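Q&A log
Question type: sequence-to-structure
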Amino acid sequence: MAVAPHRVSSHAVRTPANAVTTVRILLTPVVIVVIYRYAPAWWVLAIGFVSMMTDHLDGYLARRYGTSEFGAFLDPLADKLMVLGSLYALVALGWVWWLPVTLIAVREVAMSSWRSRLARNGVSVPARKSAKYKTWTQSFAVAAALVPGIVSNHRWIVTSIVWLAVAFTLLTFLQYVRDARSGRPIGDERAAPATVDSALGDRATGEPAQP
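Response status: OK
Response body:
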């Protein structure tokens, strides 16, 4: 008979999922330097893929052993640091214009600040489906730039994906603002109660954690 894994408290800090997320944060500068110095290259793209898999790993661990409020904060922070750092590496290389990346960064900082203020009042912000598309397009923009031959011969592909990411990024922010003004549960397209688990995104449900 299988023994159920020990479930962590929602207030726990030292959890398996949070340990993996912390490693992701510590490795972010390494990934950024690798992109800046060695991209485009297939092995650099492979490193990016592995980092994405670690995101799924901490999500799996959180679903298996339980989610935590600290993890709800830490996981999207790790995602934002990795994606924004990678995008700014592309800016430094001259492959992407600084304006769309800065628009994305400003939105992410504003959203994170807003979420923190709401969290102090006991309100969680679940991720929308459109936020999932935003996260994917941001990641795809970086991945496309790492593929050999894309930037040198088809840079418009990277540019197009970056601006699409900007569109999803600003759209989701406007949706959250609209929800707040209308009095609906923020971020919930089905008007379900906001909870810690729903705010965790892929840690609780397999969806991206970034709102």
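Response note: The chain has a mean pLDDT of 79.
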